[in-house]
């Protein structure tokens, strides 16, 4: 029994010594006395990832254990620039460790003093990174990335958006959500941005900590409701793409996966526009000839991005990426245009207006030889837009003739295009409810009649003949239905089965 009680007393005394030692180390770090040990040696990184001095451990991995102590004993530390060069690194590590502490920013009245001290401490670290003139050692790189990860990588609180998806075009009118922690987060983003683009950051060393997991967690933050955070993420990810060349294929693939999930699963994501903006500059730098990987990305990702209802949130950036591909490789114009026509909306008029604007931009970059391959499906769709009951769709389609580049392409191929669009123009002139659409249709028709009178007269003659044939077909069909009705009426009283004469002409359904 004495041996058992003796062991318990020994274990309790050891625990007290360990806790007391930790408190002593923390108080030393916060008072500034623990910035450098008495031997004057700088801490070194041990194999376990901790910084080791002269007996006191102040590792990054222990920062979470000391959160309670940090929050209750926060003390301002001296500025790094005021310290001797030999002690600057030690103080930086202490401050980085200190800034790993988390606070609740949803309640502005809690931990006001500690939040202020933490903000000032992070500003001092940011100033150190901006003004550094020597390469960052590994312990500093580890400390900075650790602190950034602790503060940025969190579970995003996203309000339910099921109803918003049904009204996708009202999303732009919603007030953006502002993160209450932003005054604190924007300092962390500034630190990350300056750290990545600093010439003192060695890419080979930094990639041990800015790894695949780090990049994936950055991409998760693009779904943040706060526009300011997404703008910082856009800049940071672009700088990482430029500095860490080895990660470029991985980043493109990871962004691709975000798009796949958005297109085929959720149709909910706040950062599609920012990710497309990054890709726009990446596509602009693609070497020629384009790799097969990039062409597959166009066909499997960019073109299907036209399907979601909320395309208005990112259409400008998507249109830029698509146009970049046409400018890089003119042979892709036919594939792109046919893909967009395949995704063309049927009942979504605002989306149709966006598509017509994008189509105009693509046609501006399309060469005549490629235009001829796809002009029939293009103007078959444009003719349907002419007759849209939504006047903005009809007007936007007719405005194509105001673009000199597009007008020249049409003029060079008017023998094919005019017969396609002339019936739609005539239908507008004779019966569209909107006066502006009628006037624009008349102007387009006048352009053809004045520029190519013979072709226009020939097409009009063909149109009139087709119109007469169509009217005769309708009359014949009406007569057939009338005869069938009469036969049914004669037989209905006798109870006999109604037989249709084999000589009765059968008309195809319209």
From TrEMBL:
Any one GO CC term of this protein is: protein phosphatase type 2A complex
Can you say where in the cell this protein is located?
Cytoplasm
Region (Disordered) spans which residues? 1-58
Enumerate composition-biased segments (Basic residues).
1-11
Q: What InterPro entries does the record point to?
A: ARM-like (IPR011989), ARM-type_fold (IPR016024), PP2A_B56 (IPR002554)
Query: Main subcellular localization, coarse class?
Result: cytoplasm
Biased-composition ranges, Polar residues, are 26-49
Q: Which GO terms describe its biological process?
A: meiotic sister chromatid cohesion; signal transduction
Key words of the record:
Cytoplasm
Question: Which molecular-function annotation in GO is an example for this chain?
Answer: protein phosphatase activator activity
Q: Does the keyword Cytoplasm apply?
A: yes
Say yes or no: keyword Amino-acid biosynthesis present. no
Instruction: Give the protein's biological function.
Output: The B regulatory subunit might modulate substrate selectivity and catalytic activity, and also might direct the localization of the catalytic enzyme to a particular subcellular compartment.
Give the protein family: Belongs to the phosphatase 2A regulatory subunit B56 family.
Q: What is this protein called?
A: Serine/threonine protein phosphatase 2A regulatory subunit
> Which species?
Setaria italica
Q: What is the lineage of its organism?
A: Eukaryota, Viridiplantae, Streptophyta, Embryophyta, Tracheophyta
């Amino acid at each position: 029994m004495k041996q058992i009680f003796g062991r318990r007393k020994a274990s309790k005394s050891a625990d007290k010594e360990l806790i007391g030692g930790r408190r002593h180390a923390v108080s030393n770090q916060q008072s500034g006395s623990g910035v450098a040990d008495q031997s004057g040696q700088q801490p070194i990184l041990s194999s376990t990832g901790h910084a080791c001095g002269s007996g006191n451990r102040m590792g990054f991995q222990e920062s979470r254990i000391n959160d309670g102590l940090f929050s209750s004993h926060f003390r301002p530390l001296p500025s790094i620039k005021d310290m001797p060069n030999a002690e600057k690194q030690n103080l930086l590590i202490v401050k980085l460790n200190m800034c790993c502490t988390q606070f609740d920013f949803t309640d502005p009245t809690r931990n006001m003093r500690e939040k202020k001290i933490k903000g000032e401490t992070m500003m001092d670290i940011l100033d150190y990174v901006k003004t550094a003139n020597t390469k960052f050692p590994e312990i500093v790189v580890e400390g900075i990335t650790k602190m950034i990860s602790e503060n940025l990588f969190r579970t995003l609180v996203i309000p339910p958006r099921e109803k918003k998806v049904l009204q996708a075009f009202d999303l732009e009118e919603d007030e953006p959500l502002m993160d209450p922690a932003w005054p604190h987060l924007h300092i962390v983003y500034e630190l990350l941005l300056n750290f990545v683009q600093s010439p003192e950051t060695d890419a080979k060393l930094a990639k041990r900590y800015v790894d695949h997991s780090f990049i994936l967690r950055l991409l998760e933050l693009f779904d943040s409701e706060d526009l300011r955070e997404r703008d910082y993420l856009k800049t940071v990810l672009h700088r990482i793409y430029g500095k860490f060349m080895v990660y470029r294929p991985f980043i493109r693939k990871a962004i691709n996966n975000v798009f796949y999930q958005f297109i085929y699963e959720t149709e909910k994501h706040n950062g599609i526009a920012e990710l497309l903006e990054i890709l726009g500059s990446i596509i602009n730098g693609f070497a020629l000839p384009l790799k097969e990987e990039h062409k597959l990305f166009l066909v499997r990702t960019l073109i299907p991005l036209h399907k979601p209802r909320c395309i208005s949130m990112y259409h400008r950036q998507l249109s830029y990426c698509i146009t970049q591909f046409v400018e890089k490789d003119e042979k892709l114009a036919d594939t792109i245009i046919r893909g967009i026509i395949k995704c063309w909306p049927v009942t979504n008029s605002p989306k149709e207006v966006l598509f017509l604007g994008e189509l105009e931009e693509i046609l501006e970059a399309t060469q005549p030889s490629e235009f001829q391959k796809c002009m029939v499906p293009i103007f078959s769709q444009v003719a349907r837009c002419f007759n849209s009951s939504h006047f903005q769709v009809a007007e936007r389609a007719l405005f194509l003739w105001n673009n000199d580049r597009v007008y020249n392409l049409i003029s060079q191929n008017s023998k094919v295009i005019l017969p396609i669009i002339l019936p739609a123009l005539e239908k507008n002139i004779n019966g569209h409810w909107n006066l502006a659409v009628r006037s624009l249709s008349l102007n387009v028709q006048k352009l053809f009649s004045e520029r190519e009178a013979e072709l226009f007269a020939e097409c009009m003659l063909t149109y009139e003949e087709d119109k007469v044939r169509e009217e005769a077909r309708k009359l014949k069909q009406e007569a057939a239905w009338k005869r069938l009705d009469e036969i049914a009426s004669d037989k209905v009283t006798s109870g006999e089965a109604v037989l249709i004469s084999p000589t009765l002409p059968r008309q195809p359904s319209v």
